[in-house]
Amino acid sequence: MSFAFQVKNFDEYKQAYEKSVADPEQFWSDVAEEFVWRRKWDSVLEWNFTQPDVKWFINGKLNITENCLDRHLAKHGEQPAIIWEPNDPNEQHKVITYNELHFKVNQFANVLKNNGVKKGDRICIYMGMVPELPIAMLACARVGAIHSVIFGGFSAQSISDRLKDAGAEFIITCDGAFRGGKDIALKAIIDDALVACDFVKTVIVYNRTSIPVSMIKGRDVWWHEEIEKVEAQGNPVVHAEEMDAEDPLFILYTSGSTGKPKGVVHSSAGYMVYATYSFVNVFQYQPGDIHFCTADIGWITGHSYIVYSVLCAGGTSLMYEGLPTWPDAGRLWDIVDKHKVNILYTAPTAIRSLMAYGLNPLEGKKLDTLKVLGTVGEPINEEAWHWYDEHIGKKRCPVVDTWWQTETGGIMLSNLAGVTPSKPSYATLPLPGIQPMLVDEQGKEIMGNDVSGNLCIRFPWPSIIRTTYGDHERCRLNYFAAYSNLYFTGDGCYRDAQGNYRITGRVDDVLNVSGHRIGTAEVENAINMHTGVLESAVVGYPHDLKGQGIYAFVIMEQLPEDAQNMRADILQTVNRVIGPIARPDKIQFVTGLPKTRSGKIMRRILRKIAEGEMSAIGDTTTLLDPAVVEDIKNGRV
Ligand code: WTA
């Protein structure tokens, strides 16, 4: 599809930006007109950032799946909606047209109905990267159920915490997931999670890897058997549920500075409008383009830029089941050539890890269909930016560095491919509708250019977080309380002399490991659950491949005799409590932590030690016990 809201050159960008600030309601109303609604909105926006309470397209009615599927059928029904590339290069790939996807979503919506799913029910999805994952999400949206996708790297304990928080009574999972050389036993992990969740009524299991699974009578059903029942019923048409613009579309859990992940809630209409607007503009999507986002759908990037925006734009989304470096470091490039990919969107971590293999894996790869390259999830260092630009884009393809968050729903700061200028390691300029500002610790605006501060947004955009599920006060405290009348991102930011934005990293206690957000408090809680641990403090440190590594300082009741063994045991506990993504890279056993007289841990000092910058530790005289710092320095691992 083409959209009138696609800006085509720098002047159009500037005009759109100015209009979006001068008259945001008219601006977004014009954009929203290009979507399919059951009923148009009465007014465009009501908002305050104090409660907070933000509503877009008030009293508008729609179902996002009619925008993702139905509207494309008449003209583009036979166009590929999803191209699926399996983990194993020898397995056949799949192409699913819009007609087929529509049919499959309708079928699975019937399965949900047959199993008693109703509008507003929360459904947890814990699957590998198979086409049935977006099918399950869209089927939930079709019947008005709220999906909560959980990334496959989270443990049973994390899943059960999220199930309880969301009150999810339904689960959709797979027997297992292929990732690289591994077969991850997803259903077994779900079974462990459900030991403490007897409120779960139904688990629907898709057969992907055929590993043995236990199926509990009265609770667990097979996806394919449920589909057979629907076929026997004659595949009845499921009427897409009419949703209010503000009805929740999904919940996605993300880490913050407290110990417990928050369920970020996105709305039906605002999310759809902004995700699609940003997709069409940032990547300059043209009809027929093949878009390959390498993220996992378990994260917001996959929700927004594998599933919802690409389909709303009538595009073709390539999804890949496996890992970029498996079976070898040329795999991504083979996929690009095989499927004639035009847009490649990946994370700096993936670029750095591929860079480490040198140029051999690129031999014989054409990469000549590529038009646009994108990065997301963490700051990209200049070296990786140039490598991507030179060796993958062959200096022909604009590189877009897209800054955004789970809470923002879509890309907020980025150059627009070929439309606005790029600058290595800079996210550059705000998208139309986004009003960034920098503030100092007191919340005073930092004006002018060539300045640094904390990044805030002063005006709502359609896909702003609506609430944290079940706890609105938490949403207020996390994002709207630090500075009055502003959304606070938690990121530090530099604005250069030309007004380009460069994200410098989190200023709160959130780590970004391989582009994944992990709260230090979460990791500490997990470590503290290990027997014999008295206290721990976790900080990030620069890591060549992952961006940030996790460094844990741990006080034990007794210093372990076999430190190596104890480290392995603690890692196992972190694996159990959160999942492999939160495993510390380094664990140092210490006898004390640097604390102020009031008992607060001085993380600044620990960060410096973890970074190896001993000379930058600064004044330690205000500490309760300054000697502790010397001990920690000497024992650095
Ligand atoms: C970081 C991922 C620098 C940032 C979409 C943000 C980035 C957090 C960039 C959100 C970027 C994301 N440059 N840093 N282009 N993109 N970040 O919620 O710290 O998983 O706050 O969303 O990732 O991570 P999340």
Q: Span between N and C termini?
A: 55 Å
Major beta sheet, strand line-up: 12-11-8-6-7-14-15-23
Structural class: alpha/beta
Mean pLDDT equals 97
Overview features:
single chain, 637 residues, alpha/beta, Rossmann fold, GMP Synthetase, Chain A, domain 3, eight-stranded mixed sheet, seven-stranded mixed sheet, 18 helices, 31% helix, binds 5'-O-[(S)-ethoxy(hydroxy)phosphoryl]adenosine
Written overview of the protein:
- With 637 residues, the chain is an alpha/beta fold.
- Among the domains are: 95-241, Rossmann fold (3-Layer(aba) Sandwich), CATH 3.40.50; 285-397, Rossmann fold, CATH 3.40.50.980; 510-634, ANL, C-terminal domain (GMP Synthetase, Chain A, domain 3, 2-Layer Sandwich).
- Helix content is 31%, strand content 24%.
- The chain has 18 helices and 30 strands.
- The strands form eight sheets. An eight-stranded mixed beta sheet has the order 12-11-8-6-7-14-15-23, with helices on both faces.
- Helix 1 crosses helix 2 (24-32) and helix 4 (98-114) packs across helix 5.
- The model has no long low-confidence stretch (mean pLDDT 97).
- 5'-O-[(S)-ethoxy(hydroxy)phosphoryl]adenosine (WTA) is lined by residues 254, 299-301, 376-379, 401-406, 427, 489-491, 503, 506, 512, 517.
